[in-house]
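JOB MANIFEST
job_type = single_chain_structure
chain_count = 1
residues = 147
[input]
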Amino acid sequence: MIRVVLDTNAVLDLLLWHNPELDCVARAVADGRARLLCDDACLRELRTVLRYPKFGLDDAQAAALHADYCAQLEMHALPDAPDSTLPRCRDREDQKFFDLAVRAGADLLVSRDRAVLRLGRHRLCPPGLRVLAPPAIQDLFAAPPPA
């Protein structure tokens, strides 16, 4: 099973814009080949972003998208303190996604943010964690599930 963390923009790609680049994730979650990981900090950001007027969602629509996402998640507790051994993201607001991916043992962190993607190339990034933009994730989900 592929353990996946989506940053907020990737969640919007998946649930709001139905970006075909994330269809492979939706299919893998639906058929049990992938699990979406999250924590309270990442969910708070999503709830805030869904209320931005530029998305044109009313309160009920935003709540429905949030609930749809929550129904698919494996939740992880927030740490008491940040892990000072991890590489730091230039954008402090995006650090939480990398921290969650490491803490939860994710195989994949999906983001389009250059600062987040840079963390995936950092020498201190755990070797089992891939940090990739949506166009680069297709092959990870192309393999059939093990028999």
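[summary]
Helices lie at 8-15, 23-30, 40-50, 59-70, 95-103, 114-119, 138-142.
The chain has one domain: 2-142.
exit_status = 0
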